[in-house]
Batch of 2 targets.
Target 1
Amino acid sequence: MIGRFLRWRHARTAMQIPLFVLALAMIAHGLLGPQLAPKNLATVLTWVHYRGVLVLALLAAGNLFCMACPFMLPREIARRFFRPALKWPRRLRTKWLAIGLFVLILFAYELFDLWSSPWWTAWLIVVYFAAALAVDAVFRGASFCKWVCPIGQFSFAASTLSPLEVQVREPDVCATCTTYDCIRGTRHAEDRNVIVQRGCELTLFQPRKTGNMDCTFCLDCVHACPHDNVGLAVRLPGSELWRDPRRSGIGMFSKRKDLAALALLFTFGAMLNAFGMVSPIYAVETWLAGVMGTQREAAVLGVLFVGLLGLEPVLLLGLAAWLTRRGAGTREPLLPVVTRFAYALVPLGFGIWLAHYGFHLLTGFWTFVPVTQSAFADMGVPWLGAPLWRLSGLAPGRVVPLELGFLNLGLLGSLLVAYRIAEREYPARAARAFAPWAGLCVVLWLAALWLLAQPMEMRATFLGG
Amino acid sequence: MAGPATFSLTLTDATTGKPLSGAAVRLEADMSHAGMEPVFAAAREVGPGLYEAPLELTMAGDWLVLVDATLRDGRTLQRRLELRGVRARGKP
């Protein structure tokens, strides 16, 4: 499926440049333009378009944003002049740091109302560029992508449900390979110390790579393979979630507590992020503030986050694992059971993200037109005409069937994955092992449906502020 | 409350305190969230210096109302007013 364009060695750079220019425009408009979110490119393109296009691209194709990631462009340029010497610290070779940053971004989004602040949104983009550059200036490989980037982790989790995957075409060809260029890089014919085409920077060795986890679709392996034996292939979305081979650069899903935690954050974070935009959140916050005797939003939000991202998953998954253990008649500890089944929730989580971000994208799709016209007019070049502020998108009511479709698809996917995991782990008592997880999926799906039915309310204030 | 609303404002001369009649007043209401279509309305004078405009607040949340007025003597004024915590209909 690799087309002529993607086979071109500079295809990724060609995709990164327009996004880089767009990011610079967003930063400039966010810092210098009107500080009104619906009229600023930083907020409109980040919170309406980028998020929506990201999840739809992951659903329809694969990890296309990482493929064209603009944050990597300054790093690529910088690496032409110096090479980082250090390896990413062994102790940090887990997803825990990135999970913490993911939570931090979700928290900051609510606390600082990032969706309503062009200025803060612009700074978020600046910080992202700086962090990517700083990490990869010090550490070798794609350390930022693999161990730090919260957007990357989000995309890795979602891309387990993508239909495309970078794969080996003929395993037999790899069996006879002696150079392993896909991971080591292509060496110069005369000077073997010079790498003319790097291999996978995320330590995914193609012959033993399974699925999309940790794959940025950078296509370095495709360009490096001297046998033209790596390409983009169509596969069954989600199938990697119920298989548990030892994966190159990752290990076994069932042994990776950090990856299981990422799957849970991906799912419960979707619920929390959607909960933050409907009316009942304000009643809950007000009630919590009363109970805690505080007016500090950070404290109230902190408790809410601990409850919804910590206690809730622990209780629900602990109960499901306990019931599975009883149903399967085993005495194993609960944590390994949770670790194995956590991946079953990813499809439902993805369904919630799709419903949420798809809503914003489709109801505000055309808003970039008047905002761009306005930005040009503000610069004294009204070439694009008077801003057409009436342009928006679909009426919210017309998006509801699509949102329901995403949620239902997510539920079906989660049920399927949970059953296949139960079959794999408890072949003799698969149905009994599956039942608690099916119940959990249905409970979360009902909660998501309830969220969808709530009136939207976008407030930067609470507690009557 | 989200939905149809009437926005009232009074224009007075800051030095004399007298109402300012005969001004052309236009309103634009924007949500604090990106991706929402702004709402526009022209106000009409219903009393000396008192103007009213119908505004369809399409969603609950925080709104910003931009007032753009041209006075009878040609002077203009712009004001940005915050309309925080507009609640969903049927919600306390």
Note: Chain A has a mean pLDDT of 93.
Target 2
Amino acid sequence: MAESLFGIHGAALEVRSHRLGLLSSNIANAATPGYKARDVDFRTALDAKLNGMGGDAAMAKAEKYRTPLMPSMDGNTVELATEQVAFSENAVGYATTLSFIQSRVETLTRALKGE
Amino acid sequence: MMMSSPMNIFDVAGRAMSAQLVRMNSSASNLANAGSIAGSAEAAYRPVKPVFRTELDRSSGLASVSVDRITRSDAAAIRQHDPDHPLADENGDVWVAPVDETQEMVEMMESARQYQNMIEVLQTAKSLMLDTMRLGK
């Protein structure tokens, strides 16, 4: 029901939300020795979700380890610049998706009220 | 650490911030003890350093940070000849704490920056969540 209501945007919002958590984890672990930065491949995750895969399975399928541009001695693969850019890109994406859903809700409300 | 409920983004940021605070506190302790003098090599202050560990929550896939342990550096105390010092031994030597002030300052700046990063993450996540809550209003 919710899928048909919000179309691709409902699925996209879930992927964005999961990615927000992963990127926050990367930023939080910027100084932890041996931590491997992770990210989700947005397209893979979204395709998997649209093809009816469950939330967790779709995310697990799309989760990848990041390849560092400059590997560090302690085995940590977090590069703050990369993570911060990805984080802000994701935050903007989340807000955009949210506004699409918002306008869908407004359209439906208007149709229901018969204005 | 035992957790009953799955970790959320606020737990991640909160724990990362407290880990950075521990790091900042140990740098402050080291800086405070820089130049402190002891009567023997064993009694001299040795710098402390926290070791971070990733705390992975499998159910949500989120990873936070915790302080695994706090280690003491095994750097040797610096011997100084100062016969007039009240703590000087029979050879007239005292031992100075082996604190690298520049390194501690850098450490402190880095932990402050990372603390700020987590605040930024927290603010972004909070405003996005509030926007989601207000959906349809």
Note: The first strand of chain B starts at residue 37 and ends at 38.
